[in-house]
Amino acid sequence: MSTAPALAHTREELATLLAKHDDPVGFVPTMGALHEGHASLMRVARERIGDDGPLVVSVFVNPLQFGPGEDLDRYPRTLDADVEVCAREGVDIVFAPGVDEVYPGGEPQVTVDPGPLADVLEGRIRPGHFRGVLTVVAKLFGLVRPDVAVFGEKDYQQLALIRRMVLDLNMGVEVVGAETVREADGLALSSRNRYLDPEQREQAVALSRMLRAAQDAAAYGASSALAAARAELRAAQGVDLDYLVVADPGLGELPDDVPAGTEARVLVAARVGPTRLIDNMPLVLGRGKDS
Ligand code: PAF
Fold this sequence. Notes:
- Pathway: Cofactor biosynthesis; (R)-pantothenate biosynthesis; (R)-pantothenate from (R)-pantoate and beta-alanine: step 1/1.
- Its EC number is 6.3.2.1.
- By secondary structure, the chain is an alpha/beta fold.
- Helix content is 35%, strand content 20%.
- The protein contains 9 helices and 9 strands.
- The strands form 2 sheets. Strands 1-4-3-2-5-6 form a 6-stranded parallel β-sheet, sandwiched between helices. The protein has a 3-stranded antiparallel β-sheet with strand order 7-8-9, covered by helices on one side.
- Helix 6 crosses helix 7 (156-168) and helix 8 (198-217) runs antiparallel to helix 9 (222-235).
- The protein is globular, with a radius of gyration of 20 Å.
- The chain starts with 5 loop residues before the first strand and ends in a 6-residue tail after the last strand.
- The structure holds pantoate.
- Pantoate (PAF) binds next to strand 2 and helix 6.
């Protein structure tokens, strides 16, 4: 049987609940619409902090990370179901604040500058997005004061930027990346998958097919990996590509000649119908970038 987590809507309620614990705090920040991918983050956090430490999940749709014309208004808000997922995973505290609670001074005048890594990939297509993400994560870290925070590798650039923020701003939080959870056919779990109609759902699997093709061809180098992914894209229908890249694991450019065994990442973003999806997978390169 699962026990309902304590629900905090205000900073004061959160502080009161946290004050009851002195064990290491685990934290999973989310925007709600929780699915099995989020549940797996909670399990990773619980493993890290042990049975006694409080596990906190925040549910907050952060307006600052949505650009004009993005899906802020239609982003799913499903708090009751989210609390049930948290109960099943043994979460101790769900922090579900309103916008005024997180941004008490209104639109913030001080925000986190995400630096150059935010100018590429998602950041190039969604200007201001990572400023919004890092600002809210910094605020939530300030409120929850976690020892360990877990983020999904599915949002790989976000994870890289949060690691960098914690390093550059001496935040003293251990940031853990958790592997992407996939449907049986390979589609990465995402809160946005619910927008796909049945035909688009079939088409969306092309993203993970592209990434797997890249993994299979990586032994021949990064160019071959990209070529294999593009071949999958040509065979796909209804997929409108934003980007497909191979980068080093920190998202820097790969040198032209890399030794066999070099680790890299292949990342893709595409629209399927009106829904924008992202995915990525690790690669181990065989002979070099352009062999
Ligand atoms: O990945 C998300 O759900 C959000 O970007 C995060 C980290 C909760 C910040 O709003």
